[in-house]
Fold this sequence. Notes:
The structure is a homotetramer. Chain A has helices spanning 2-12, 26-29, 64-83, 113-120, 128-143, 152-161, 163-174, 182-193, 199-210, 225-238, 244-250, 287-300; strands spanning 37-41, 47-51, 57-58, 196-197, 255-257, 262-267, 271-276.
Amino acid sequence: MNALLAQILADCAHYTSQGHVATYIPELANVDPGKFGIHVTLPNGENYGTGDDQDRFTMQSVVKPMILLLALMDSGITAVRDLVGVEATGKPFDAFNYSDQALTGAHINPMINTGAIALCTLIHGNTYEERFDRLLNLTRKLAGNPNLEVDQSVYRSEKLTGNKNRALAYMLTAYGMISDPVEKILDCYFKACSILINCRELSRIAYIFANHGLFPDTGERFFPAEYAKYVTATMATCGMYDGSGEFALTVGFPAKSGVGGGIMGVIPRRMGVAVFAPSLDKHGNSVAGVQALSQLSQALDLSIY
Amino acid sequence: MNALLAQILADCAHYTSQGHVATYIPELANVDPGKFGIHVTLPNGENYGTGDDQDRFTMQSVVKPMILLLALMDSGITAVRDLVGVEATGKPFDAFNYSDQALTGAHINPMINTGAIALCTLIHGNTYEERFDRLLNLTRKLAGNPNLEVDQSVYRSEKLTGNKNRALAYMLTAYGMISDPVEKILDCYFKACSILINCRELSRIAYIFANHGLFPDTGERFFPAEYAKYVTATMATCGMYDGSGEFALTVGFPAKSGVGGGIMGVIPRRMGVAVFAPSLDKHGNSVAGVQALSQLSQALDLSIY
Amino acid sequence: MNALLAQILADCAHYTSQGHVATYIPELANVDPGKFGIHVTLPNGENYGTGDDQDRFTMQSVVKPMILLLALMDSGITAVRDLVGVEATGKPFDAFNYSDQALTGAHINPMINTGAIALCTLIHGNTYEERFDRLLNLTRKLAGNPNLEVDQSVYRSEKLTGNKNRALAYMLTAYGMISDPVEKILDCYFKACSILINCRELSRIAYIFANHGLFPDTGERFFPAEYAKYVTATMATCGMYDGSGEFALTVGFPAKSGVGGGIMGVIPRRMGVAVFAPSLDKHGNSVAGVQALSQLSQALDLSIY
Amino acid sequence: MNALLAQILADCAHYTSQGHVATYIPELANVDPGKFGIHVTLPNGENYGTGDDQDRFTMQSVVKPMILLLALMDSGITAVRDLVGVEATGKPFDAFNYSDQALTGAHINPMINTGAIALCTLIHGNTYEERFDRLLNLTRKLAGNPNLEVDQSVYRSEKLTGNKNRALAYMLTAYGMISDPVEKILDCYFKACSILINCRELSRIAYIFANHGLFPDTGERFFPAEYAKYVTATMATCGMYDGSGEFALTVGFPAKSGVGGGIMGVIPRRMGVAVFAPSLDKHGNSVAGVQALSQLSQALDLSIY
């Protein structure tokens, strides 16, 4: 496995010079586009990694599966499903004219910003600080690292410049889908996006989803299998933005990408994998990361289709 | 003229029971749907009104022509046109996915909330309080009433519940179209929507647009004719929301409606008219108001087409 | 007037080198982009023209007002309005998924292909050849030239390549808005688009609309004034494609353009005008033609706003 | 397995009275909504069925995987992928205005009518009759029944009323995506939709996809494994129309539904399944069929996530 991962990194290294690092927040633009790491977690806690797989990056959208999971654990499937839809086919939404259509749950998805913001309201906690702390703790347990922290400068940068997310959150408010103060919810969401992680930890998280909620080392059940399937299925249909269909063809397992350059991949019942390479394609997915996962999938026959 | 207006009110009174008063802010829902007034202003300050034409109502979107006018007076045609487009054909806009299209001026219009909010940033003033005061003063002068005031409870209600407008304003911010603090801009906008006016005053404003910037009584020029044409032309193509095309056919002159139930109609070079009847059709236009303007247009051959 | 028109042509001649001639059918691409003509028709048949105002070009979308007029004359306002809407704000329409929204009259407009195609079915005639002959005769009478003919090579070219129009026509069929054979209807429509006209004749047509249905020479009524207003009002809100709002600002009277390079302008109660210059802007409107109309409007204060 | 299938049919029978049979072609409306059958195919050709699993119904959209497969076998992955996209997130497409966006492969998908129509042009054959014959033969071989035939009255009915598909095909033509005569292509497509099949045969087809191209009985390879994965992956993200995301959650394996009431489900490496129950939900999927597959998936832990 070590040899295979090394080979994949060597073969795909030239892809790190394609695409562009995210620039919509200044802090993300400073990352070194040459970084490239991969890590896999197998049953019994066996794991292998190479390259920059210990380098930390902010989770960004890779945290969406964690938000969905905690919303499921705290509020249950019915409440989650009632608030946020699961289709990738949501039609454009407009609010220019008096008579424009209403925004409903059917228009949103847990793997898209609007859906993830809405789901923060289904995480339990007396305050949004408490809700975030519970989300951070969940992520720490899944990652197997009690010291995961928020990148404060990225968090402040997101908070300062995250006006598209503010727009989405106020739209949710306007249509009665959320009712808590927008800035409180967004503060939780921005912090979540700014959690620092590395490939080793992220592949462990992916493994736990692949293992349907059981910890890799102890075998202890951390959450019900049906929550794992809920999260994984939405990753399969919508986890790679407008590149989800292409990814299903060329890689073939559920995955979630983030504009920080990370991707977590879940191979149900078999494996968790994570890659990190900051340069993104037009869909917002790591160029070299997608290539590496594709090569890994071919080599180990990981497609679930 | 008095007889004609009385006849129109009698003929159209039964339309006041059709449609629904606006309910999106609680204060607007309390208005009496049976209210119905009309007022016309003719050259030399001659004017006629009947029914509830002295009853006050909040301007709501009827204030948009005033915002556009003051932006033109303060910043000029080029700055206004660069920031805010003039087509009614703006395509739906979406911000769900990473790769979604950017919002540009071509998508917005001065007669639609997004455009009016953006135009508040082109009104001069050291603070948004000062900008609003200048807008209120402009409206007072146009209306010929130095005592126009804001309905404080409607204003507070709009501020409290205006989350769709917050969403739009943050979207404008996210795409770099505005840069001042959203809440400051919206405070100015919400106050503007809450200015109390009556049909007599509103028809005077309409007359000044029809008279291309000259006051009806003194004949003094208040603003350039080309600004009047700018405002009036955008009212003609987009002033009645998704009912603008229908209104051009059945009434045939530029007009702007508001969800407070008011409509101002501009018959260039001839007349200003205002109606008030709070019950709205599906487009957000006063049902009885549109009917009254249609009958007036037929009776006096007011169509500009 | 002769001096003014000559001045306008001289001032705007350099615009003929901007934009691009239509290329979607090969025959249109062969036109000389340097052609430039203008003609105005005034009361009592007085008329003035200069440049290439006797050159013939195909009407293309400039025939849409004639289709609408004949549909009104044959089937009346109610039937026309029931079939085809009048808003410029029609939302994008999709037919990809089983559950997609139905296409309705509210989505279409007489000044847009879909609406014009639908209106061909409201023209009377036992066959579509007969319907087209009646449309040609109407156009001949309006133009004051009994010899107007179809450009056969453009017609054949449109028929061969007009698959977007076929798509639109089958969509209308699928939603029950039309029921006659699509190729018959389109044959009528393609022939109509291929009628050859010149600026002198087109300005006479525009004048008759401006004169509310009365012939310029005899003063005889050819059609009711309300039909003239119906046609003119839809031209004002939607006659210049996605440039209709801009045209209302900068020129200020109802007009209809065609991709053949012609534009007819209607100044109600005052004047008809036509320009011809084949090079088009991104909206499909003649670049030099719009400039010439703008200068004419300024010089003679023709804005209706 | 027999007992399980019988139990599922009994449990889900009441769902056959929910929803509505397809009515867009008269022939489909005549089907008995009480019909309900299920059949599974396992390794080594083992198979079990119950209820109306021998009743024939027209494939409708269930034939799309076969069209995609034959296009892949005849023209290869690159040609298929270049012509037809694989995302479920295609934005609405419009063709109303001169300046509207171009239709591209990125807007379409093999599991949606537009994509399937386009893919007919990648099936080999000197004529479209020959192409269809090759598609029918492929389907016969997959189904294990050399006598599969077209329902002539459904085929004629589709041909007569399939104007939405005509519209889509002409749109593809207009944008240069297909160039053969539309009626020829559609004739092939309409015949394909009208092939009569039963659940036993359809589950055998599903099994061959699940078995990555190997026949269940002989173990002989019929097509490459990567084609099976291509087809199955597109079914997973887009096979159940706007209900694909929901189906991934509640059932959890790739499937394709048709408005004839059939659904084929592919459980990779394990099983093929087919259900038939004509009454459809709002997405166009069999109501009782989806319920039966959900129950089967729970009972046998068939989710791939």
